[in-house]
Design a protein that fits this description.
235 residues
Amino acid sequence: MSFIKDMISVFKKKELMFRESYKEADEVYTFLFEIDKSLTWNAGQYGLLSITHKSIKNGTKPFSIASAPSENVVRITTRISGEPSEFKQALLELKPGMSIKMGGPVGAFYPTDSRPSLFIAGGIGITPFRSILKQLEVEGSNEQKGIQLLYMDSNNTHLYKDELDRIATNTSIRITYMESKDELQQEIDKFIAKHKDNGNYFIAGPKSMVDDVTNYVKNQNIPKRNIKKDAFFGY
């Protein structure tokens, strides 16, 4: 049923009015959009953004929504290099009051039960987790979930760090920052040793990172049904 619901939402595109953009870090930008009043989403989902102010090839791309539903704004954070793609160049050209369209949101990348959950983010893959953690903070529903976030960033940038630290201070959510794969695997091993038969694993980041971490977790005899992935493809 959720699959059918997702497909319907993809074709029912909403108009989002651009509010502002700003630089989060080197080659990382955040874009904020006013929401259509009928737009709803679950923390951790993604939308299909369509450029409408100019004609470009492949003008629709998926983006995780980094904002929580409670924030009443669609936040998109993405990497944009010095030689951006046609799509990302169009994002940079947005001016306040201009609009884009969004299909969805879709996806099931969020906790649906109270079992302990390990969130594993690589680089820009922190975006869906920001949404989830912000919503959990607002709902005050994190106490029973035993949530831990492992955030690996080889560049030691760690987007949203101040905000994430504030959330951790106000909740029981544990956050560990790291720069290497070895550190990440050590922390995964600790979680598995404690929650092997009763843990959920959420992995988000560049596709190569998601594949590597997924294989590592599976090799520890974690059932496939306990693993959810959100792989980011560069464009």
